[in-house]
Amino acid sequence: MEKIYVITGATSGIGKALVKYFSKDNKVFAGFRNRKYENELKEIGAIPFYIDMENENSIADAAGFIMSQTNKVDTLINVAGCVVAGAIEMLPVKDIKNSLI
Ligand SMILES: NC(=O)c1ccc[n+]([C@@H]2O[C@H](COP(=O)([O-])OP(=O)(O)OC[C@H]3O[C@@H](n4cnc5c(N)ncnc54)[C@H](OP(=O)(O)O)[C@@H]3O)[C@@H](O)[C@H]2O)c1
Fold this sequence. Notes:
Blueprint: E1 4-8, H1 13-23, E2 27-32, H2 38-44, E3 47-50, H3 56-69, E4 75-78, H4 93-99
Parallel strand pairs: 1-2, 1-4, 2-3
C-alpha cells in the first residue's frame, strides 16, 4: 500500500537516495532549498517543496503546503539538519538559536 513520505534535504546524499528509493512505490514530498533541483525531483517522481530549515516561516509554509496535499504523513525523514559545533562559550548565541528552529 502506498505510504506518504516527507523527506527534507532531498537534493543530495542520503536524502536524494531515499527519495529515489521510496518514490518507486510511494508518494514522496521532497524538500529542496535550491530551486535548481526542483525539476530533477519531479523527474524522479517526487513532489518537490521548498524548505529552508534555518527559516521558521519557510518551515511553516512547507508544512502548510504538505497539509494542503495530504491528510496524513506516514514517515518524516529530516535529513536536512543544522548543527553548530565548537566550545559552547565560543559559539555566537544567534548561531545556537538558529540551530534550534
Ligand atoms: N555523510 C556522512 O558521512 C555523515 C556522517 C554523519 C552525519 N551526517 C549527517 O547526515 C545528514 C545527511 O548527510 P549527507 O552526506 O547525505 O548530506 P548532504 O549530501 O550534504 O545533503 C544534505 C542535504 O540537506 C540540505 N540542506 C542542508 N542545509 C539545509 C537547510 N538549512 N535547509 C534545507 N535543506 C538543507 C542540502 O541542500 P543544499 O543542496 O541546498 O545544500 C542537501 O540536500 C547531514 O545532516 C549530515 O550532517 C552525514
